[in-house]
Amino acid sequence: MPCKLWPPVNKEEYKGVWVYLEHDGTKLKDVALELLGKARDLAAKRGNAPVGGVLVAGTDEMAQEAIYHGADKVVVIVNPELKVYTPYEYANAIAKVVAKYKPEIFLIGGTKRGREIAAFIANTLATGITADCTALEIDPKTGDLLQIRPTFGGTQMATIKTPQRRPQMASVRPGVFPKPPRDVNRKGEIIHESVELNGRRTVFLGAEKRIERDIADLPPVESADVVVAGGRGLGSAEGFKLLVELAKLLNGTVAASLMAVRAGWAPHTRQVGQTGKTIRPKLYIAVGISGAVQHMMGIQESKYIVAINSDPNAPIVQNADYAIVGDYKQIVPLLIEEIKKAKGIK
Amino acid sequence: MKFVVLTKAAVPLSTAIRIDPKTGTLVREGVPLSTNQWDRDAVEFALKLRDRYGGEVIAISMAPPSGIPALESLIGMGVDKAILATDRVFAGADTWATSYVLAKTIEKYVPDYTLILAGEETIDSTTAHVGAQVASHLNIPYVYYVYDAEIQGNKIRVKRFLEDEGVDEYYEMELPALISVAKGTQMPREVSLSRKLNAREKIMQATNKELGLDPECVGLKGSPTFVATQTGATFPPRKRKIYQGDPRESVKALVEELKKEGLL
Q: CB–CB of B252/A170 below 8 Å?
């Protein structure tokens, strides 16, 4: 006998793979598009099931954009009470729409807001959820969703299933899956739903952008082919100047480890790793980064990893394609000089 | 005012972990456990609120009896009392079943709670689910990543920071409510030995006999999710060419390799 608090589920009624379409007020977040790509892939393995999206206080243009990226149907929640994000009210409203449309799988981007509402939605629907999946697959035998995630500080990979309950839910961090191509010939349906709120319990009072001085006028870490990252081993914010010079020379950008961000040497927007961004550049150069498992989780998709570290026993040295053991203050200027020579720059 | 802090007696990352081969879940029985370090921020936050507004701080945890020393340390920090929900039937719980037991423990033993506080996430599981799920079981509003709060009458105003957007946000909630406290923001106070004296007397244990929960709704049975397999993480193989010695020679060798791979 299953737990009586869980209403009975008729699995046959649940169809399709749906995605929560988070946006910033003007456009859909990249992670929503990435999830639509994954949703199409999973739906194909479930007998070409439909792909859907849930958008709160978004525009029809955003819904259309979701359709161009793989959605067949987008539900836009239009209640004016939900114009501004508050976790309790948003989570309740989204849960109502999901309960009505009954997708077999519901995916949420693992942004800060996404993580805040995902588990509440799952509980409201009396179903399970797996956080921060790094892979999603369909079990060929049962058709269940396999939710694969790192756990225990990233030292273990767990495959998690939700066999008895529907929908099967998972959150996924930005940058884990590639963004699908935009196809303006794709057609889909946009539905407006005014969801009723059972009273308001949270009020948004205001927001302020924190002014953070970036270390350089360089592209964001998630979009660059070459990423030069610095860690605690740099010893000071000053060390990043050399890294910026190297990154510019390689048409790349600069990133930082958790320790370097904590030390205040680089802004949080440049942090890579399990608690920062997941990246997949062609070339990743880690300078003064020891390579804790949490860091490796975020960079393991890099095509090539280069490590520059004074400690030959640092994990990153053992997990790199090329590692130079030595003082970065000596190595990086030499590297800049040699690359200039190789590129014929005086 | 009653401030309830959800704390997890976690397996420290330095410990060799054991997986139950039958359930695929982490073995916590008989393992030295310590309070999840991010929960100490939540405890510190609760203590500051108590110092400011009066009342008491109650730590609640679900763990095997090996979780008691972790609660003793929290008493040593200044927590007034602690409740340990502990029963063999709670083992193997996912976050739904864990948050259910925690919510029911609060309802039974601290029904007049003012505010529930949780750490941002745990170091061993890192799901950040349990806070929101306790809020869901109790149907109360909640805000995550809080670093500052002010209570006025039956309302709480909170400040939080969203790291990925670089934005500070301010919310007001009706009490009772739940907040998760942003990790690394509170400087948890030291454990004092004198405060820790007689800590055991301040810890109450509640088994499922006291809580009276349907055994089908707790532990592994009450978990919508289960771990099908768990294996050591592996990273893609790397070339592992390591250059030591003369820096200029090392750099030259690296640049040659990068050229060969078409990276320059």
A: no
